[in-house]
């Protein structure tokens, strides 16, 4: 059994930022465990640009963004053990990992940071009828084939779902000589960033079919085509008579991401049904004392810059915990998702909060000329105006300790949107 | 001339192969597709049926009850996970009592042990999550669950260990009578053998009708299914059938040996023996009926849907034994549900009959024991450490959802009658069968298949034929390797 102060599970953007920040706070006993052969996580395959605008005021590619953090980790000499898969975590923070080099190892950590990222929802979870042929990939799998393996999955492409990876892959497949016929989105709005819709679809004349879905998949062996139909925006059910057939050999799915929390569950960490990630307090500490969660395993972010920012907090807090300087208040207020709000993080805020924190959430729909409000109990304590809110872009709110003083009898905090839904 | 040619690599064909390998015989099995267990045996309800359901006096009734009794021994010898989790046939209202009583009597007549009718309290004690209108149930203590493709692979591996030769992509296109036996013309070559066994599932009519005037006809009966995430492994303990009503035969809700929950099947007679599509109507029907048993089906936790075709024979029963006008041509035709349950008994029955007719001697070297691929996910830490020290590929988890390691995937390809495709790997190891449905592990599985089979990624398929993953290289081959 090896002892370690802070054990970080995952060497992607979240784990790297957490490690650096814990080091900078003074911790000298950190270990990163990464399952792949190299650090960097999913950024390794994100060879497009657009990363780092907030953090570095520069436009970097995914690998370049990751490299800045990897360089820091190397400079600080933070140990990172790659090719190592964590297979169990106990509530008392014993971690079991396996690797080719070291076999099966146990680690006893004072604090653990969960930074495992997320995975993509597959076709099976949608129940789309039709053949179960080859040629259907999640967008991230296709991205791995093209960007890391140099392999082209197909030449005529339809994309189901308009998440960011799907949008990015529409452009990538076009660059690589494929014809992308359409991007089909069930909802009346895209789940991706506006800039990706413009730069990845509009610029290449790829139609975005909102309120549409794939209703049938043709092809006994390899995919031959998909039938797309319009859906009723209220019921999301296909409208008969609106079917159109697209002949294609490739269907890419970008229908949502699921935080990968199997290990968190083993550790006894409580999972929020709203985010599918851990429930955390303002310190990003989970329901298990000393276990923190950050990045996409906590909730799916829109920009990696915010992942880094959040994870840095988790790293610093984990070190405070190791030093016995992090108070864990059992007396907390729950953060409730009000109208138009989904998956607000953190879920719990201490009544004795003493410094400002951020609350993040995704709007549950598109709202124009909207106002986001925070209520403490039934007292509205803050508002933030926004010209437009969309589910593709996360909303970040500052929450100051003084808000709590405006209503000391409150039993909850509510985040909500005031606007006409468009 | 060979002794026996078996046509069809499903659970019955592989079972017959294994049982025949107990004798000193020269045996080959011909499978049409690129893999065994690729038809009915890969997509069914995975149940060991009690045997109350089939009409008394039918072959279905007889072999169901016999097969059920054989499962514990066969699974032990072949290291196949199975579980006697019991079955329940649930009525949803008081007027079902007479029908339950009828099933009970029919079961007793078929010789099924351990049947009883249980009331509301006992039903809810056993199954706290059962729907609110569930009224009473027939308890079938001998009911169980098994993984059908693992069963088929185990039979095949054990048969191969004991000397049976397997030919894949060996569709039979003609059978002719020759002196002392049969000439079987296949896409993998022409064979002659003293005996032929027809285990061709959906195509068992085509094969039979090539040699016999006693024609049969198989109608593909499609069933559609949902699989629910392992998170709900404990939702139900028994396999829960619904008492058939005027509204339909009802839909089953059952745990699987792998920890998922299966909902289905529908029953729809179709024309096309290859049409394994799922349909919006079929899937909707599954949910509608299953929700009687399970009122709060977790709709966001489906991991996949599939459909399977049952080989429904126009004679409404199995067709077993030597064809009346074709000596030494043996049928295991029209084997649909309860075919999986009956398979061990059918295999033994046919093997004994054929061995007897060929006056075959016992194979003294026959080894009934086959071991499954050691599963990393089922090991304790000590076993894991040891497995890794012997084979470091056990430390490389490829499928994160099901915790399947590179060692298991390589072994699945290297074994006798090993995997040749991504789906072949999936059925042998569960890599790609979990909640992300192969999103993460596909690229790595493709690479391992290339390494083991010495093929290029352009040749790797999902399930043979043109089910390819990769259309082209993005770079010249040389550049690609440096990239």
From TrEMBL, chain A:
Chain ranges of the FAD/NAD(P)-binding domain: 5-299
Record InterPro entries: FAD/NAD-bd_sf, FAD/NAD-binding_dom, Metab_Enz_Cyan_OpOx_G3PDH
Entry keyword set: Oxidoreductase
Pfam family, one: Pyr_redox_2
E.C. numbers: 1.8.1.9
GO molecular function: thioredoxin-disulfide reductase (NADPH) activity
Cell wall biogenesis/degradation is among the record's keywords: no
Stated name of the protein: Thioredoxin reductase
Species this chain originates from: Caproiciproducens galactitolivorans
Gene that this polypeptide is encoded by: trxB_1
UniProtKB/TrEMBL annotation, chain B:
Domain named FAD dependent oxidoreductase: residues: 3-353
Ranges where the BFD-like [2Fe-2S]-binding domain occurs: 397-449
Pfam family, one: DAO
The entry's keywords: Oxidoreductase
Keyword flag Oxidoreductase: yes
PANTHER family (alphabetical): GLYCEROL 3-PHOSPHATE OXIDASE, GLYCEROL-3-PHOSPHATE DEHYDROGENASE
Record's protein name: L-2-hydroxyglutarate oxidase LhgO
């Amino acid at each position: 059994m090896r002892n370690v102060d802070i054990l970080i599970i995952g060497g992607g953007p979240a784990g790297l930022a957490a490690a650096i920040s814990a080091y900078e706070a003074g911790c000298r006993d950190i270990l990163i465990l990464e399952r792949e052969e190299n650090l960097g996580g999913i950024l390794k395959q994100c060879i497009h640009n657009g990363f780092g605008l907030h953090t570095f005021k520069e436009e970097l590619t995914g690998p370049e963004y990751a490299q800045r953090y990897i360089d820091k980790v190397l400079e600080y000499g933070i140990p990172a053990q790659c090719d190592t898969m964590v297979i169990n975590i106990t509530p008392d923070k014993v971690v079991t990992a396996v690797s080719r080099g070291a076999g099966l190892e146990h680690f006893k950590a004072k604090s653990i940071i969960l930074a495992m990222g997320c995975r993509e929802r597959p076709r099976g979870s949608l129940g789309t009828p039709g053949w179960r042929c080859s040629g259907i990939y999640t967008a991230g799998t296709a991205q791995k084939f093209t960007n890391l393996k140099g392999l082209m999955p197909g030449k005529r492409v339809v994309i189901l779902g308009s998440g960011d990876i799907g949008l990015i892959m529409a452009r990538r497949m076009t660059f690589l000589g494929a014809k992308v016929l359409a991007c089909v989105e069930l909802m009346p709005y895209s789940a991706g960033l506006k800039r990706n819709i413009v730069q990845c679809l509009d610029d290449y004349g790829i139609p975005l079919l909102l309120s549409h879905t794939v209703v049938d998949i043709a092809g006994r062996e390899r995919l031959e085509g998909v039938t797309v139909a319009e859906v009723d925006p209220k019921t999301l059910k296909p409208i008969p008579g609106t079917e159109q057939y697209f002949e294609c050999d490739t269907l890419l799915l970008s229908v949502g991401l699921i935080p990968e929390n199997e290990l968190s569950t083993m550790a006894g960490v409580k999972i929020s049904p709203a985010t599918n990630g851990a429930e955390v307090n303002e310190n990003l500490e989970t329901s298990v004392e000393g276990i923190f969660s950050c990045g996409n395993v906590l909730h799916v972010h829109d920009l990696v810059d915010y992942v880094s920012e959040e994870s840095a907090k988790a790293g610093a807090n984990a070190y405070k915990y190791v030093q016995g300087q992090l108070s864990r208040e059992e007396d907390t207020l729950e953060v409730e998702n009000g109208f138009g709000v989904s998956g607000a993080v953190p879920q719990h805020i201490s009544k004795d909060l003493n410094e400002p924190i951020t609350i993040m959430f995704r709007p549950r729909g598109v709202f124009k000329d909207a106002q986001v409000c925070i209520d403490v109990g039934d007292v509205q304590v803050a508002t933030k105006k926004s010209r437009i809110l969309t589910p593709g872009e996360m909303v970040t709110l500052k929450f100051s300790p003084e808000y709590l003083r405006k209503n000391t009898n409150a039993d909850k905090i509510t985040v909500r949107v005031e606007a006409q839904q468009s | 001339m060979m002794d026996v040619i078996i046509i069809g690599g499903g659970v019955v064909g592989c079972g017959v192969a294994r049982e025949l390998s107990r004798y000193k015989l020269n045996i080959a099995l011909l499978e049409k597709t690129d893999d065994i267990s690729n038809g009915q045996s890969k997509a069914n309800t995975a149940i060991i049926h009690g045997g109350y359901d089939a009409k008394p006096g039918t072959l279905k009734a007889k072999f169901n009850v016999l097969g059920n009794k054989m499962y514990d021994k066969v699974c032990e010898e072949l290291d196949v996970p199975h579980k006697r989790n019991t079955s329940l046939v649930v009525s949803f209202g008081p007027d079902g009592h007479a029908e339950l009583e009828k099933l009970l009597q029919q079961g007793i007549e078929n010789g099924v042990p351990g049947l009883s009718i249980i009331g509301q309290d006992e039903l809810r004690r056993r199954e706290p999550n059962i729907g609110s209108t569930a009224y009473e149930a027939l308890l079938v203590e001998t009911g169980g669950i098994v993984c059908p493709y693992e069963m088929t692979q185990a039979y095949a591996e054990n048969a191969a260990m004991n000397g049976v030769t397997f030919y894949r992509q060996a569709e039979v296109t003609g059978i002719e009578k020759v002196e002392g036996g049969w000439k079987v013309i296949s896409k993998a070559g022409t064979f002659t053998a003293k005996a032929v066994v027809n285990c061709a599932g959906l195509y068992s009519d085509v094969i039979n009708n090539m040699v016999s005037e006693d024609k049969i006809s198989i109608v593909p009966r499609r069933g559609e299914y949902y699989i629910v995430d392992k998170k709900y492994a404990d939702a139900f303990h028994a396999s829960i059938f619904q008492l058939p009503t005027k509204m339909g035969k009802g839909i089953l809700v059952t745990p699987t040996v792998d920890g998922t929950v299966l909902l289905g099947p529908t029953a729809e007679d179709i024309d096309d023996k290859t049409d394994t599509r799922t349909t919006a109507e079929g899937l909707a029907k599954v949910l509608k009926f299953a929700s009687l048993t399970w009122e709060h089906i977790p709709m966001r936790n489906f991991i996949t849907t599939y459909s399977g075709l049952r080989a429904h024979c126009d004679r409404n029963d199995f067709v077993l034994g030597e064809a009346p006008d074709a000596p030494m041509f043996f049928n295991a035709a029209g084997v649909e549900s309860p075919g999986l349950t009956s398979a061990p008994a059918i295999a033994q029955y046919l093997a004994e009959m054929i061995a007897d007719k060929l006056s075959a001697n016992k194979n003294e070297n026959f080894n009934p024991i086959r071991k499954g691929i050691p599963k990393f996910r089922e090991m304790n830490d000590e076993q894991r450490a040891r497995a890794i020290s012997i084979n470091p590929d056990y430390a490389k988890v490829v499928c994160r959802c099901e915790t399947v390691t590179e060692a298991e995937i390589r072994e699945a390809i290297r074994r006798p009658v090993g995997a040749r495709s991504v789906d072949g790997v999936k059925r042998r190891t569960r890599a790609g069968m979990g909640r992300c449905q192969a999103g993460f592990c596909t690229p790595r599985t493709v690479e391992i298949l290339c390494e083991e089979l010495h093929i290029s990624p352009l040749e790797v398929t999902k399930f043979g034929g043109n089910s390819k993953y990769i259309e082209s290289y993005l770079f010249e081959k040389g550049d690609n390797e440096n990239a």
